[in-house]
Amino acid sequence: xxxCHNDTVKALELYRWNLQLASAFQEVLSITEIxxxxxxxxxxxxxxxxxxxxxxxxxxxxxxPRANVLPPGxxxxxxxxxxxxxxxxxxxxxxxxxxxxxxxxxxxxxxxRKAAPITHDDLLAQFTFGVFTKLLPTTDTTHRNYAxxxxxxxxxxxxxxxxxxxxxxxxILADRVGRLHSxxxxxxxxxxxxxxxxxxxxxxxxxxxxxELTR
Length: 215
Prior knowledge:
Elements: H1 8-49, H2 51-54, H3 85-105, H4 120-124, H5 129-133, H6 146-155, H7 171-188, H8 198-209
């Protein structure tokens, strides 16, 4: 109401504008998230399956069995993550497992995967945008995962973004993704977008997919 000087008609128009902008961003952010998720997944699968990383994985036989979960293969960076990814994935992995089990239990009897074990892809689908932001580098040198995130970028995640040739430390990308994550939360919670620089955030999304799209 403050932005509309207590004019009810203008306030309703502004609310409708906010809904339209949120809807437009929802589509853009959804595509951006999936593109980023799949790119990072591919890079981490390759990295995790490398013999050097497999030596840093706890053998599956020594882990407690997980009911209705497909045993991880070498490329499975969620259930069979090598160091330092394992420590970064502990909490997201547990959450994804719980949610995947719940999703499995809700499948109707006619579902083709009703009795199928939970797979890497089932878990990947449960990850939120925020999980992937925390796999990117951070400029906060005091962050407890600063070194692990930096190492992961250098060894693996940068391969997911080969077009970021001018961002060797990944900080530009991480900053853009962080802004988009904040925007996604605002959009999802139907918060006001009046102060959001829509053009700049749309550019962030395009550059996350490929910088050439903004030229």
